[in-house]
């Protein structure tokens, strides 16, 4: 698959169901594709460099000017052959220049793709880290709020327990005093009975 910068820009990852962020396996698979494409481009560039070097070497190893000059001094038929050789030399030079230009354009495109992929990858990484940090801060704040509510509830229950114990002790002491004073037990009135514990 030929990967383009537009593929990287337009790539969208599926969100996960149980936590915020992107599916790590999907991100890893996409990065593997990016790496494979970059390696292919590097290999292709190296192949073009080798072919260009071989073409330059072949052009420099073919002496043209001296045979052309020698042929020009011979018979008219030889002069025609010299012109054909010179024409072929010009074609070879033009072909070499074209190959060099294509190679440079290809290298330039490869560098642009590489830079775009790196920039997009860095931007994605920063965004993912930022989202993870935001999620962590939010969850921590929620946890702190829940902790504060629970601590408040615990303190309220402790306070209620203290009050209830004090009232119960006071009620029992009062009943014991009445029992000692009268020698008989008097059932408590509604006003004297301790407050019942709240249902949980």
The overall pLDDT average reads 79
Tertiary shape: rod-shaped
Element pattern in H and E: HHHH
Radius of gyration: 45 Å
Which percent range fits the helix content? over 70%
The helix count comes to 4
Number of strands: 0
**Low-confidence parts, pLDDT < 50 over ≥5 residues?**
none
Roughly how many Å apart are the termini? 63 Å
Largest sheet: none
In percent terms, what proportion of residues is strand? under 5%
Helix/strand/pairing class, anyone?
A: mainly alpha
Word description of this protein:
This protein has 200 residues and is mainly α. It is 79% helix and 0% strand. The protein is built from four helices and no strands. It has helices at 5-10, 24-60, 65-72, 76-182. Helix 2 runs antiparallel to helix 4 and helix 3 (65-72) packs antiparallel against helix 4. The longest helix is centred in the middle third of the chain and has 107 residues, at 76-182. The model has no long low-confidence stretch (mean pLDDT 79).
Secondary-structure map with pairings?
Elements: H1 5-10, H2 24-60, H3 65-72, H4 76-182
Helix pairs in contact: 2-4, 3-4
List keywords for this structure.
200 residues, mainly alpha, rod-shaped
Brief description of this entry?
The model has no long low-confidence stretch (mean pLDDT 79).
């Amino acid at each position: 698959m030929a990967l383009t910068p537009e593929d990287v820009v337009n790539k969208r990852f599926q969100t996960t169901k149980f936590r915020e962020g992107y599916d790590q396996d999907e991100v890893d698979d996409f990065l593997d594709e990016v790496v494979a494409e970059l390696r292919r481009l590097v290999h292709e560039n190296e192949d073009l460099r080798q072919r260009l070097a071989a073409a330059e070497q072949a052009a420099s190893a073919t002496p043209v000017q001296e045979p052309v000059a020698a042929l020009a001094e011979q018979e008219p038929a030889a002069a025609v052959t010299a012109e054909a050789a010179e024409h072929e030399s010009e074609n070879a030079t033009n072909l070499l220049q074209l190959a060099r230009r294509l190679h440079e354009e290809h290298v330039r495109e490869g560098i642009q793709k590489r830079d775009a992929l790196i920039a997009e990858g860095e931007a994605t990484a920063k965004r993912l880290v930022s989202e993870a940090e935001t999620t962590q801060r939010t969850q921590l704040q929620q946890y702190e709020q829940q902790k504060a509510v629970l601590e408040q509830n615990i303190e309220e229950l402790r306070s209620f327990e203290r009050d209830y114990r004090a009232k119960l002790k006071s009620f029992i002491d009062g009943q014991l005093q009445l029992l000692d004073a009268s020698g008989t037990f008097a059932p408590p009135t509604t006003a004297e009975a301790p407050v019942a514990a709240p249902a949980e």
